[in-house]
Amino acid sequence: MIFSLLVQESAVGRQSSHAAYRFARELIARGHTLYRVFFFGDGVHNSTRLNCAPAGEADLPALWQQLATEHGVDLVSCVSSALRRGIIDEREAVRHAREAASLREGFELSGLGQLVEACIRSDRIVDFGG
Amino acid sequence: MTLHILSASPFAGSCFEECRRVIAADDALLLTGDGVYAAIGGGAAVLQELHATGVAIVALAEDCAARGIDARLPEFVATVDYGGFVDLAVAHPRTVSWF
Amino acid sequence: MSARDSAPRRSVLVVCRSAPYGRSRARDAVDVAMAFAAFDQPVTLLFLGDGVLALAAGQRPAAEFSRSLEKLLGTLADYGVEELHADAAALAARGLDAQALALPVRLAGPDELRELFAAHERVLTV
Questions:
Q1: What is the chain C residue with the closest CA to B2?
Q2: Is C32's Cβ below 8 Å from some Cβ in A?
Q3: Residues in C touching A40 (Cβ below 8 Å)
Q4: Cα separation of A17 and A24, whole Å?
């Protein structure tokens, strides 16, 4: 079966995106396909490259990146959620004259159309909000 | 056939009550995160009513253990790991998240 | 024929459970519903629980700090989001007059709510 996930909260201070990651790993281990993870609202903080996870804490942005590298999962952060929160790629950094880009490699910024497309293409979409 | 996923404490807001109003007899309710607290105290009686109508009540085992309530789960609450969570999602064409 | 003309359609129920302004979730739910409509997907927007507070008429947020959700709601039909439902019990509990909301919506009792959830292939709570 083809899955996509919607992640709406930051990995810091909330459990839901950790649950999403665990679910993602498990569905792949069971032979299903993870097509896309769409990060929306505060969920875009999962796509930062500037976080510094203390020893002993899961570095979720790095874990998502690794998941994408290993399994070709499409990681998309909603561009309008991301820009507001300072999660920007090189193009947006130049466009808005910001000193640096903050989007982690392996993620891309795109619109809500990618969420719509994921809903169309996937057999199951699981919403990890809250 | 819907899998309802409750991940907020039933004592913290209204999502448990709203979920209860729309859940149907052939649905399943998975308690995850702080949602596992629905299995104790006043929530247990509500879950028992739902179970009696045919709703499958399931809880994520590690979230119960993390919160120290795994030994207090009513017997009609089945427990699963993340693999079981995936299997539930596969078995139900629709998932609804309550948080 | 464009790719969009032949795209499959999956019905989606977007659920708004959050009051407006204190958090951005209500606005986000509207944006998500509009995105589905823009891609020609059958979408229904349901205001449940505190989400019905987004429908209160006469919203006047201070301009520089907040954009009016009521104005955004007013454009829903233009963007193809026409199926709007609200939890009747939640409106009553919050003292909102169902006849004097920011825009017309279909009132849903418990049976209608259950039917709405069962009738859509996808449900997304924002």
A1: C118
A2: yes
A3: 28, 32, 126
A4: 10
Q: Which chain B residues are within 8 Å of A25, Cβ to Cβ?
A: 82
When divided into structural domains, chain C yields a total of: 1
The reply to whether residue C118 touches residue B97, judged by beta carbons under 8 angstroms, is no
Dmax over CA atoms of chain B, in Å, equals 32
Q: Is residue B99 part of a domain?
A: no
- B94 closest CB neighbour out of C48, C114, C123: C123
**Whole-Å CA distances, A26 to A44, A68, A130, B82:** 22, 14, 21, 6
Question: Considering the domain boundaries, does residue B23 fall inside one?
Answer: yes
Which pLDDT tens digit goes with each residue over B51-91?
999 999 999 999 999 999 999 999 999 999 999 999 999 99
Q: Would the CA dihedral through C118, C121, C125, C126 be positive or negative?
A: negative
Convert the pLDDT of each residue in B39-51 to its tens digit: 999 999 999 999 9
Q: ipTM greater than 0.90, yes or no?
A: yes
pLDDT(C5) > 70: no
Structure tokens at C79: 């963007």
Judged by CB atoms closer than 8 Å, whether chains meet at A117 and C39 is answered as yes
Query: What pLDDT score was predicted for residue C3?
Result: 46
The pLDDT tens digits for A50-103 are: 999 999 999 999 999 999 999 999 999 999 999 999 999 999 999 999 999 999
Catalytically active residues of A, by annotation: 78
Minimal Cβ distance to A116: which of C24, C36, C123: C36
CATH of the domain at A12: 3.40.1260.10
Q: Which residue of A has its CA nearest to C30?
A: A112
Cα torsion through A76, B99, C27, A80, rounded to 10: -20
Predicted model pTM: 0.96
